[in-house]
Amino acid sequence: MREIVHGLQNAKRRVSLLAGREVTLVVNRGRNKIEKLHGRICDVYDGIFTLRETQGKVNSFSYNDVLTGSIRFFPPESTE
Fold first, then answer.
1. What digits encode the pLDDT tens for the residues 51-62?
2. Which domain holds residue 15?
3. How many structural domains does the chain have?
4. CB–CB of 38/46 below 8 Å?
């Protein structure tokens, strides 16, 4: 049980370090539904964090998604 708590705190810390930065997220929604989202992590809360996409849409994600590997973070893709 203790390892899970430390893992969750580690995931929260890693996401909070990315707050305010441009990122690309690859989100596995299940059943071969993979989304690639580009935006900025705008808010970090106790249970969730939010990503504001470049089009203005806001998505929220759980830290458990980060722990299970359903969400992966990448540097923003260049527009060149």
1. 999 899 999 999
2. 2-74
3. 1
4. no
